[in-house]
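Reopening this one. Same input as before:
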Amino acid sequence: MRITTPRVLAVLCAALLSWYTFQVAPGLADRERRAAAARADAVLPPTTVLPDEKPAPHRPSQRPAVAFPAVGKAFIGVFTSAGAHDFTEGAGFARQTGHRPQVYEFSADWESDRFDAEAINRVARRGMLPLVAWEPWDHKAEADEPTLRGEQSEYRLSRIIHGSFDRYIRSWARGIKSLRYPVAIRLAHEMNGYWYPWCEQSNGNRRGEYVRAWRHVHKIFDAVGAHNALWVWSPNVSYTNSTPLNRLYPGDEYVDWVGLSGYYGTVGKENYQSFDRLFMPTRTEIRRFTRRPLVITELGATDAAGRKAEWITEMFRSLPRHGDIIGIIWYQAVKEIDWRVGTNRASSAAFTAGASASRYQQPWQPYMTPRVR
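Same output, byte for byte:
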């Protein structure tokens, strides 16, 4: 074969590409992972050693069963927009309230989020139960027009039911199974509205398909053996023209916790609503068909009228009266409104006072068993 300059250059380019791919790129990726871990450690240091990370002689063969939360206790969690890759807002919540969250919620969408064991482990190492808001859509393709927000034909419920996403679902099921502690999955939340592709009011979906899709996903996890998944069925608080919740409930055999999303001060609903007024009508509706424990999976309050601290105080006064509510998760983010606790000193102080009660002081540990009754 005749050696020519283009051939030599091609060989050199191939060699350089191979060297970069197998020598340089892995090092850069590893460096970025170490940098991300260092940043996370700096703002919210780890407190917990996971089961697989303990030396074999120090792994307990059997632990006493401990429920989370225990009867008479409730947890306080946080939901941030940055997720498991940046704990800055979680650390801010802890600093502003004096309370380290026992549950950490973050979103993962089916279009762009592959299963990432290390991301979930980062949460668990900080003494927080990971709760994944697992969303069957492409959040980057969200329409600007609210009435079109739920229109993504690729993510119709029928496609989930008929197996179009089975490989993806199975990859998550196997990943969750590999973790030796519970992971909560808040699948396809706020399904009683119209603003997501999995809502029966949108995207060409039909009545009954939400329950069928939920059960389909759950059965894949069961088949894989991912029994450490904790299933959280989480509608929005009911409103005029929302889908009746009893039509959307998959059944107690497919659900471990029931959740609710609700905010004081959303656009168009700025008038003051207490915690009880916001959540109790929907709680009553839910109690007609299930007794599963209730978690407020998204919660926030505006300070537009200067009543955020008052609202928080009333919330903590109300919660002990509702023993079936086993936890609340505050939305610590800015989305249209600044929902973060620390928008002023008074709201921070109100939250600190409420969260200091002994009923909120049970830490989460990976060996604990989620309470489902």
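So the earlier flakiness isn't reproducible anymore. For the record, The mean pLDDT is 91.
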